[in-house]
Structures
1.
Amino acid sequence: MPYAVNTMPRPRSLTPDQLAAAALAVIDREGLSGLSMRAVAVELGISTMALYRYVQDRGELEALVVELVLGSVDSTPPPLTAGPWRARITLLVDRMRDTVAAHPAVLPLTMSHRHRSPGVLRWGETVLGVLGEAGFGPEERIIALRALLAYVIGAIQQEHLGALSGAGTAAIAELPAEEFPYMTEAALGARSLTPDREFHGGLALLLDGLGR
């Protein structure tokens, strides 16, 4: 009697990049709140239990996503020929903005996973180096780095989730001017403000506040 042939397919072996890409696809489609082990398993075409072979929980998926997105940020120290420290910091901030602009929903994860993401750590190391060369002390460097991270995260989220060209600005412009004179004036003027001017204008104000 011939042996029975096992026709059951072998379980797939998935790489960290494949897991991260599936989780990122869920976030891009459903937002950060839609990320779950089950949703990623469905995206991969496997069972939820099978996904647990690769990651322990949603937190590990988040860390993989952060590294997939931010791991490609260019953290090479800008040369001195790029200009004074402000110009070099602006270049580093622009690199991060350009890289993560396609996935703004991921940005809140950078704060909770910054200590585990080599991409975030490399970027932070380069920023701290530039600040150190500019004469910032240890405590000043910490404050400046966190302020820059907070600005980048908040500004990109506003640009993509609450743009000045959106319905919110139009609604504010229609408020009664006698009750909200400054808000209505700002909303009317905001219509001509491009995302680049808004982003770099805010960054310039932050860098002015850092001094030097």
2.
Amino acid sequence: MDLVTFRAVLFDFSGTVFRLEQDETWLADLTDHEGERLDIEAQTELMRRMTAPVGQVVDLDEEHLHAWNHRDRDPELHRKVYLEVLKQSGVPHADQAVALYTRLIDPTQWTPYPDTEAVLKGVSGKGVKLGVLSNIAFDIRPAFGRRGWDAYVDEFILSFEVGAVKPEPEIFRAAVERLGVDPAETLMVGDSEEADGAARDIGCAFALVEPLPTHERPDALLNVMRTHNVL
């Protein structure tokens, strides 16, 4: 098989280069309808629902279903529906839900994968264009900026700024246009076959990584870059 020489790599954010790790201090004081603290199983399910890349995670009425379907295009709709998700997931107290939601959308609270820095630095150092493409309703640039990694990223393509979401082709087209590359010379790396894999619809290549806890996935990004002859 002939190896493509990629001129650009697009990385998904959540579950790909960063992960929202469960922090016991965030969840320790959460209480249910009876005032009982959430057990570990409930806490784990709560975090899964808050970070699932695709798929509706709770039953929603028409108003909240609209918010869910458009959550990554509009920060207000994102806040509205995820407060409802928290409410239905065992966090009925509004003050607790707001406090947790505020932490979940703070990009400085997210944890990078062990090989994220090496990959970003390596790809950029090779002269390959690098973009971060995410379905998200808040600005993730501070997660990179506080570590100096924003210097390696040519473009951030964020759904709430672009007005399109994966798997819609428009967001991938916006990415390659901003980077000034052809889709056939672009590799998309992400943790969702459904969302990120749709980059293939405009002619990009795609590589899947598993959204495992960061300590369980030390070198998946490096392996992808080596397999695709980027590094």
3.
Amino acid sequence: MSDNDIPDSPGSPFRHERTARDEAPQFVLPLVVRIEKDDPPARTDALETAARAVLVMLADERSLGDGEWAEVMRLWQDARIRKVVRRGRGGEWRKASALPGITVTGEAAEVRVFPPVPLDGWPKELAKLQVSGTDLDDPRPPAPAPADGPVLWLSPDLGMSAGKAMAQAGHGAHLAWWDLPEGERKAWQAAGFPLSVRTAGAGRWRELTASGLPIVRDAGFTEIAPGSCTVVADHPALRR
């Protein structure tokens, strides 16, 4: 699913109203989730793995300084922050995996994240992959999120496909990364970017959206209404 979302902060590249960022070249961060027909991953596993994949890409040495992906990462983040989740299986997955990128694994989920590409310039191996139909289920309710760990809280009021929710979780992780001090970023990376993705209860959601933690709002291009709150990024260091 394609997303372009906003947190509640002035001047953010995720804002939905038109800004100078709209005049910059537009790039998108591609994520491909492996969904084999007979053995799909659990939904929560896929969401958490997608969020971690975004963090791994942001922290990778090739994305920083003079790294080979640094310029395109800068161009991507200087314009609208877009992430698109597609699905692949079998030969499609193998061809996608041959392109430069990083594969991140969860309990069973596999998500490959690629350096940003121009909005209208996708590699053919990725362009032909399906966006729609990324529907996954949890075979059993996920365990409660650890109280002392990072949690990306999903809105209880919105029904999102797995692909849409994966992109939203990626946005939430991205916002947490931006808001953390450098030392906390390094500690999170050293620990392997542990995180949970859970749907908040109605009362908890009201508390979270009033807490001052980073909030993702949807731009309304797909599935849900513009301005909808989709994710609150809750990291222990941000609670302080």
4.
Amino acid sequence: MPARRPARTALALTAVALLSATATACGDTGGLRGAGPTTTAVSPTRLWPDLRPASSPAYPYDVATRETVKGVTVPGGDIREVDPVKVVEAELTAHPADYGPKGTYHATVDRMRQCRPGGEKDRCPLLEPYHRDLTGDGRADLTLGFRLYPTNQTAVRVYTVEGRRLVRVLADNDALLGVELAGRALIERSPADTSGYEYRTTWVWDPDERAMVFSRDEYLHVGDGPHGRRTPSPSASPGAR
């Protein structure tokens, strides 16, 4: 994306500079040279040691969500045989407060009808599904994304199989710049309210919670360029951020 090109250019220039320095060093037949004085290490300073520690978080935040998907079976325990359209339709049915006529994402229901045979595929909100082992059990899991109309948000969902049951282990809604799978981590990129910056949220599998949990939230400079304002996302389901 254009916003990331300056960073890539900087890396390229750094690489050229390093190669140039290496080439110069190879032609230098002189002796050892000092690198200058070493900076004195400074230990961390603990501020306000007498401050009474908080006993509870300022804001509630569910780091893990799990929900068994009702009405969807997993033939032979192979998640690749699951129909993604039926998976999303099961969520729409299970959460009428979000997807009903007065729900925040009410227009998603009409759009999902276009995902069925004979529908207008360019109006279908469901994005391409991906299969990758994110839980570490050696079996593929299912990562889905679908647009949440009439908002500019996108739903990101991860599902795994337990027995013959389909279990949702990640549910997050946000205005997204992109989503990446890196190893067994899922990374969401979202616009920040400052031009040239973006948020990157990382989710990883937690065997104790048996769900994908919030692992890291970064605020990164990605170069010059306008980014939309990031606003809190209403929950699409219990526990979704």
